[in-house]
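Example record for the data management plan.
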Amino acid sequence: MTRVIRNVKATGKLVTILLLIAITFVYAMFQGGFVSWFLFYSFLPFGLYSIFLAIYPMKDIQITRKTNQSEYMAGESFVATITLKRKIPFPLIYLIIEELLPTQLESSNQPKKSKVILFPWFKKEIVYQYMIDSIPRGEHQFEGIRLKTGDLFGLIEKEGFIQVRDYFLIYPQYVDMIYRQLESRFEQGSTSSNVKLQRETAIAIGIREYKPGDRFSWIDWKASARKNDIMTKEFEQQQTHDVIIFMDRTKSEQFEQLVVFTASLVRAILKKGAQISLVSVGEEESIYPLRSGEIQQQQIYYHLAKVKDNSSIPFSQIVESEIKKIYQPVTFLLVTNKLRSDMVQIVEGIPLRHANLLLFVVKERATQLSRDELEVLEVIRKRNIFVKVVHEGNYTDVFLEVSKS
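Corresponding structural encoding:
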């Protein structure tokens, strides 16, 4: 219906121009004289231009979008170069070009605007740039470019939309963090596992005959020479170090800081060679099994790029439900923006002889705990649970205090 109305208006304007040309011509024929003919010939070029503009095909314009990067991290500058190419060099007095930004980017700071007015005239190629100073984390779908032009009198206006689709997934920021492994508690007592996680750095306690699958670096050359057979080092059995991160996705104004902190945790722990699992429950449930390596980090970062604070289930309920399914010795890291009274029951219910538990409360700069949160903090600390309030910008050494406690 809207298109029909638009076409009717355009036809009406075109008829108006034809009538004006006809009226000035009739006036010149009947009136005669210099003034009347001057009026006719003066209006004729503008009238003809408007007629040709009305039939000029906007689909003649081809548009490409080129960005300064193929992948982005939150906070980086997004620069797009828009190139318009025309086959017909029809003179355009002005051309308004507008990139239809995704909703999440409409309020972003733009040092170079995504909507500009240019004066191309006969140019067959037009190039302009726009810039978003700090692109936010998330999924951003770019649909296309809106064009608008017209004649001098505003009688004829042409609009067009040219589809140029691009999809960008903006990954979360992270901070280089120094992760220190904690002591692991077992039924027999507490033993320190504060050693390197790779087997090559474990202590050799003996030698044995070579077995298929042993690494070249494990061969003991002196023993091999004495025995006249290939001998490999026997290593002390190491304790595995598995970490499970619970991410609080209840609605919060400080959720972005929580995502940055979680991304930093994941990167630091995996860098140490440990296995990691992420439990992230909102409108959809995302639970990543215990794994290590680059692929695990990529999968978790892909999730963190899209994650939203849309959980309707209390964080404590999610933690309680998932912890019941875990039986092996692990370290639990709970990451939240707010301390709630129901967290006390959760930390009391975790069998700490089988696990370590650390609770991180992520806050913006200069944001203090409320009175209720301070009360909960005091109760949890009396249960010998490590709780750390982490402020934005102070993520690097959060485990320094952990290692001393």
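Summary line stored alongside the record: The chain has nine helices and 18 strands.
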